[in-house]
Amino acid sequence: MANAILLEVMNNAFRSIAEQMSAAMIRSSYSTIVKEMRDCSSSIFDRDGRLLAEGANIPIHLNCLGPALNTVLTKFFPKETLSPGDLIVTNHPYAGGASLGSHHTKDLIMVAPIFFKGLELVGFSVTMLHHRDIGGTWTGDSWTVEIWQEGLLLEPVKLFEKGKRNEAVWNIILNNTRVPRDMKGDLLAQVSGCQMGIQGFNDLVEKYGLLVVQETVEELLDYSERLTRKAIEGIPDGVYTHEELLLDDGYKGGPYRLKVAARVEGSNITLDFTGTDPQVRGPINSPLSATISAAYYTMRGLTDPSIPTNQGCQRPIRVVAPEGTLVNCTMPNGCFQRMVTAHVLVDLIIGALGNAIPRKVMADSCGCLYDFCSAVNMETHPRGGEVGHRQYWGEIVPGGLGARPGKDGISVMSCHVTNCPVPPVEAQEIEAPVLFLERSLLPDSGGAGQYRGGLAQRRRWKVLGHEAQFFHTSQKSKVPPQGMAGGMPGKPGKWIVNEGTEKEHVLEYAMGDVTFLDYGDTVTCVTPGGGGYGDPLDRDLAALRKDLKGGYLSSEEAREQYGVVFGPKGDLDEEATEKRRRILRKQRRRDTAVEGSAGVVPVR
User: Fold this and answer.
1) In b/e form, how buried is each residue of 154-192, taking b as 16+ CB within 10 angstroms?
2) Are 76 and 155 in contact (CB under 8 A)?
3) Measured between alpha carbons, how far is 49 from 79 in angstroms, rounded to an integer?
4) pLDDT 10s digits, 309-327
5) At what angle do helices 167-174 and 180-208 cross, to 10 degrees?
6) What CA–CA distance (Å, rounded) separates 278 from 299?
7) Residue 475 has pLDDT above 80, yes or no
8) What is the mean pLDDT of the chain?
9) pLDDT at 592
10) How many CB atoms lie within 10 A of CB 12?
11) Residue 490: which of 367, 307, 328, 385 has the closest Cα?
C-alpha cells in the first residue's frame, strides 16, 4: 500500500509528464492556433487504457482521448499487435462505427504505446492537436452537411511502425492540406509530444520500479473515485431536469432543443439526454465522445477541484445519449462545429443541478465564439500560408463568464470547454494581412447581480488583403446568458461589418456561412457578457464604487439595476441607496405575489 506522500508525488509526476507533452507541442508547432492559442492536449494512460493524468489545455479534448484510445485498441490495434516505436494516427469521428473517435477531422489524435526498456507494455502516450487545414470544402470553415466535406478521414493507421515512418501515410496527409508547411511542422510537434510522454513514463518506472508504479496507480484511481463519490453524495438524491436551446436565433432551422435529466442516487449520477432533438444536416452535431467530454468537464467543475483528474473521477458518472440525436450523431453527418453543442451541454447540466446545489453552480457564460478570415496580399505577405498564398487569422474569441457564489464573473475569457488564451494581435498581423483596431471591455455588459457577470469585449479588425473569406460562430444573440439565483442576464452579442460607415450592416445570425469581404472592410465582434448571480440589490456598495470607478458600470445601469442613488456631487449616497433598495424589494415581493396568483412561473 502506497503512503500518502508517495501517492501525491506520483500524481504530480503523471501530471508533469502530461503537461510537458503539451509544452513540447506548443513550443515546436508552426501554426498560430497551436503556438499562440494552445489548441492541443495530451494524456497519459496505463497499459489497460485508464487515464492517469491530462495536460490542462483544452477540456473538450481531454476526456475525448480515453474513448478514442479504447476505439483504437478494441477495433483496430489490439495491444498484442503493438511494438516499441509504433505511433498510430487518426482523425475519424466515426472510426469503429460509433462516434467515439476524434471530435472532428482537424483534431488529429496520435497514440504511442509505451514499452519499458523496449520490452513490456506499460502505458500509452496520447496527444491531440488542432491542425489548420485537413482539406474539405474550398471555403474552409463553412456549414457542412456531411463528414466528407470536412476533410480527409483517417481511420487509425500506423504513421510509425517500429520507429520507421510510413511514408505513404505521411504523404497522404501532406497531400490533403492547403498548408503543407504548417501541417508538417505541427505533425512533427505532435510526434515530439508523444515522445516526451514515452520518455517521462519510462523515467518514472526506472526511478520507482514497475511494481510500485502499478500499485500506486490502482490506489490513485481509487482515491479519486472515493473523493468524487463523496462530492456526489453531497447532492440530494433526485431527478433534476433542464432544457436549453441551440441556434436560438433561428439559423438553419433552429432553435433546436437539448434536454437532460440528472439522476442522483447516492454516490452515482446519471446524465440522461433522452428527449434531445435529432441530429441535423449540418456541422453542429456532437459525437458521443464530445458529449462525454462535456459531461465529465462539467462534473469536475461541480465536484472538488483538488481531486486528481484521472479515470477514477469518471467511474461514478454515467452518460445516456440516444444514438441519432444532436448529442450522439451517426455517419455521415457533419460534426465540425460540435463545440456549439458542447457549450450548451455545460449550461444544460449546470441548469439542471442549479436547484440542487445552488452554491456550487455559476450563471451562464458567453458560449462558443470564434471567427476566422483569410485573404491574399502578395505585397505584404508573399510567403507562408496556403499553397495559393492565402493567409489566415482569427481566434477563439473570449467573452464574459458567468458569476459564481462569492465571486464576479471573469471578463474576456474563453469559457468552459474551450479555454484558449487570447493570441497577441501582433502575432496575427505579422502572419496575415489584417490590422486590429480595437480590443476593449464593454461597460454594462455583465449581468447584474450580487456578483456581477463578466464583461464582454468589443473586438474590431480591418482586412488588408484581397479575396477575403470570413467565417464566424457565436451564440446567445437572442437568448442572452442567463443569470442564476436572482441574477440578471448578460448582454447578448452581435457581429457588425463596416461599423460606422454607409456600408454598415449587422449580420443576421450569430453563426453564419462564409461572408466575402473587400480590401478595407472592417468586422466588429461584440461578445455576450456573463450572467449575474444573486439579487443585484444585495451587491456590496464597495464593489459598486469599484465598478463605477473602473468604468465597468455606468451611472444609469447602477441606478436601474442596483438601486443606487447619487448625491449632488455625483458620489454614491449610501443612506439614500439603502432606503431605495428597501422600497424596491417590497415592490418586487408584491409583483411576485401577483405573478404567482396569475399562474406565471418565473424562470431561473
Assistant:
1) bbbbbbbbeeeeeeebeeebeebbbbebbbebbbebbbb
2) yes
3) 10
4) 999 999 999 999 999 999 9
5) 130
6) 25
7) yes
8) 93
9) 67
10) 12
11) 367
* Cell 495559393, residue located: 388
- Cα 483 from chain centre: 20
Sequence-distant (6+) residues with CB within 8 A of 315 are: 225, 228
Q: Is the peptide bond before 283 cis (omega within 30 degrees of 0)?
A: no
Grid cell for residue 466: 484581397
Q: Where does 29-127 have alpha helices with state H?
A: 32-35, 59-62, 65-71
Task: Give the C-alpha separation, 375 to 139, whole Å.
Answer: 11
**This prediction's pTM:** 0.94
Cβ–Cβ under 8 Å, residues 146 and 93:
no
Neighbours of 558 (CB within 10 A): 23
The Cα-based distances of 65 to 21, 33, 58, 125, 493 in angstroms read 14, 20, 12, 10, 33
CA 309 – CA 307 distance, rounded (Å): 6
- pLDDT tens-digit map of 275-311: 999 999 999 999 999 999 999 999 999 999 899 999 9
